[in-house]
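Late entry, written up from scratch paper. The run itself happened at the end of the previous shift, but nothing got recorded in the book at the time, so transcribing now.
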Amino acid sequence: SERLKIDMKAAKELQTNYFYKYNTSLNGLMLHHNVVGEDFLKYVHDIDISFMKEDKIMRNELEQLDMEKFIFTNGSAEHAKNILTHLGIYDLFGRDKVYIPKPAAKTFDLMVKKFDISPNETIYIEDIAKNLSIGYERGCTTVWLINDEHFGKIDSDKDYISHKIENLS
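Output as recorded:
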């Protein structure tokens, strides 16, 4: 609304349309309004996460996995760091940033190449079901983190979902 000088209702409609058409609102804003990705992500991720507490159960479970762990996010590296730090697991993950939204094959393939990941030895966990499609196509075991978000549930009945879980920990 502020950036495009439009009212909140029009901004919400535009955001929703871009989200569904381009897999992220940011991608649409970058394509049509010359919005700089880093600036947008810094603005939208300036949120209070003080409610989020360290998750010792998840940390313990992750430490038990004898494998490399990576965060593959459409968000900013700073936001991922903030969230993972609050959860007490930031140090357990490799990280990188790419501003081509999931489930784009290019983004997935760049990550696989950069970190020398073997997809058939990879467990790909995602809260947006449709984002798992490319991982499955590349040979990953896919896991959908069940949630009630409308966008997260789209395609949650597809065969490319190997497993479903209700709690990440």
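The helical segments are 8-22, 25-33, 37-44, 56-64, 77-87, 105-114, 132-137, 150-153.
(Scratch paper discarded after transcription.)
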